[in-house]
Design brief:
about 375 residues; alpha+beta; 9 helices
């Protein structure tokens, strides 16, 4: 964010106040952008948050379920900061000894009855609420960067990826046209083809992907991205296992692991260098950027999401506490707007009695 220039004819304000004021302004501007984008007032006239969610549904909505990442489970535990975390950000979550956490583990896609082993992407969403009432919500994914840099690109990807009725696969011509217009998506396709699939939610690394701004006690800011890196050793899931695994094997594996004890992840914060893209989540930062272990996430229980504490939570990643500010990444604003539309749709459906009853493993994905 540009540094304000003082008028030499007037007394300068205390320098330490400017970063704090800038951080507040960034939050206000980013949230205003999210609401404006949801109303269709920025971006192409034809693309609004409701229309983006329509594209995700593809004419086949599942009433009462989240429109994206429809299948998952609730989880709970706590977060403990590291000794160096408070130097990175003044956020209360990095100062108090322990913060309770509720969250959700899920797979990508809008089908609440999908086969776990066929889902390329795993996700972790968290809600951390500190003792002063502040909240930090984050929605992380197993991919290291987004496929595209803009909401328009994501919408185009959804349309190009729709299966051709004749083949059951995306139309090659439409996909080629999409890649020609959004060439950054080729990097994501290469990752999806080459990176090994994890065998468990517990041994998956989850990435915040978007950049945020950490602000320390003196008001100094730095742009960061964060990841949850598992203590459980990575084990790949091969093609044969993907074809023969139980439909709900991720949930069953999670429950089996939790019976043996809590699961842990390290919160790793990566710091941007000058010139690194902070408003484009499709571009990874170089591997040599400074990394800081900011704490440990511990998950010690799970519940079906139809009845668990994650059921009615919108894991909007723009809900951040003092000490964490938003970047101007347009994908971040679009996520907030689309999450709101999805949440409101399923809440209306539930109020009308359209949600299925949670009677077994395949219906535990409800809500």
């Amino acid at each position: 964010m540009p540094t304000p220039h003082a008028d030499p004819s007037t007394p300068a304000r205390p320098p330490a106040r400017w970063p704090a004021l800038a951080a507040i302004a960034a939050i206000v501007v980013a949230l205003a952008a999210a609401f404006a984008w949801a109303a269709g007032r920025i971006g192409p006239p034809h693309l609004t948050a409701p229309r983006l969610v329509d594209a995700i549904e593809d004419g086949k909505p599942h009433p009462g379920f989240r429109r994206a990442h429809s299948k998952g489970v609730c989880v709970a535990g706590y977060f403990e900061p590291s000794t160096q975390a408070a130097a990175l950000s003044r956020a209360r979550v990095f100062a108090q000894p322990r913060t309770l956490v509720s969250g959700r583990l899920s797979i990508a896609g809008g089908d609440p009855y999908a086969l776990d082993a066929q889902a390329r992407v795993r996700s972790l969403a968290l809600l951390l609420k500190t003792d002063d009432g502040q909240e930090w919500r984050t929605a992380m994914n197993s991919f290291p960067f987004f496929a595209v840099a803009t909401p328009e690109g994501f919408h185009a990807q959804l349309l190009a990826s729709r299966p051709d009725p004749a083949t059951g696969k995306p139309n090659p011509a439409k996909m080629a046209a999409f890649l020609a217009r959004y060439p950054e998506a080729a990097r994501f396709q290469a990752w999806a083809k080459s990176a090994p699939w994890s065998s468990s939610w517990a041994n998956t690394a989850y990435n915040g992907v978007n950049a945020f701004r950490f602000i320390d006690a003196r008001g100094r800011g730095r742009f960061v991205r964060w990841s949850m890196e598992p203590e459980a050793p990575f084990e790949p899931l091969d093609e044969a296992e993907r074809q023969h695994a139980d439909p709900d094997y991720l949930r069953e594996d999670l429950q089996a692991r939790l019976r043996q004890g809590p699961l842990r992840w390290r919160l790793v914060v990566t710091e941007a260098a000058p010139g690194d893209p902070v408003d484009d989540a499709s571009r990874p930062w170089p591997d040599d950027r400074p990394r800081h272990v900011a704490g440990t996430l511990v998950l010690d229980s799970s519940q079906p999401q139809a009845s668990g504490p994650c059921r009615d939570v919108n894991y909007d990643p723009t809900v951040v506490p003092d000490g964490i500010a938003l970047s101007a990444d347009p994908i971040l604003a679009a996520r907030a707007a689309a999450y709101s539309v999805s949440f409101n749709r399923r809440e209306r459906e539930i109020a009308r009695g359209q949600a299925p009853r949670a009677t077994g493993a395949t219906t535990e994905a409800a809500r």
